[in-house]
Write a structure and sequence with these properties.
The protein is mostly beta strands and 176 residues long. It is built from two helices and twelve strands; from the N terminus they run βββββαβββββββα. It folds into two domains: 88 residues, Elongation Factor Tu (Ef-tu), domain 3 (Beta Barrel), CATH 2.40.30.60; 60 residues, PRC-barrel domain (SH3 type barrels). A hairpin with a 4-residue loop joins β8 and β9. The mean pLDDT is 88.
């Protein structure tokens, strides 16, 4: 039921059922429940490894505390909602909201190099980890992995192919 030609973006996880009429508690990885309210459709995937994501139309949604409460058109009871517990939530890349000038999605950093202000290449960004207080860049340098907090104080500039960072003395050695 998915269009494999369109790239899917993982945006969150179903964390529970809400009420008796099939509503779901959804936690977006952005930490902002309002970020889920603009979508008219979502794809959900269950299991380990995950199954093929299945498209669902949204009947209604609202922010509530630290999650979004979402009612899918095809989920009409608490029993049906509980079957979707812990499902991964995806959207089509084309459905992501437009960003303002100078803004970017964190996933767009993957594949870019991380360099110091002096031009030293630290490595290539291979992933992003959620660290609770801040996101963490996962960087590969010829098989050696560095984990660097992605905080505004460290970022000097974001270029087309690189992230220029000013790192505290000793941070890279902690990863050694």
């Amino acid at each position: 039921m998915t269009n494999s030609a369109e790239e899917l973006v993982l945006i969150g996880r179903v964390s529970g059922a809400h009420g008796l009429k099939g509503e779901l508690k959804m936690r977006p990885y952005s930490g902002e429940p309002e970020s889920l309210l603009s979508y008219s459709r979502l794809l959900l995937a269950l299991g380990e490894p995950e199954s093929t994501p299945i498209l669902h139309k949204i009947e209604r949604s609202r922010a509530h505390k630290s999650w979004a409460v979402v009612k899918l058109e095809d989920c009409n009871s608490r029993t049906e909602a509980e079957k979707l517990l812990f499902a991964s939530i995806y959207v089509y890349e084309d459905d992501l909201p437009e960003l303002d000038e100078g803004e970017f999605y964190l996933r767009e950093l993957e594949g870019r190099f991380v360099k110091t202000e002096e031009g030293q290449v630290i490595g290539k960004i291979i992933g992003l980890l959620s660290g609770g207080a801040q996101d963490i860049l996962q960087i590969d340098n010829n098989g050696k992995e560095y984990l660097i907090p992605l905080v505004p104080e460290f970022i000097v500039e974001i270029e087309e192919d690189a992230v220029i960072m000013s790192l505290p003395l000793g941070l890279l050695e902690i990863n050694a």
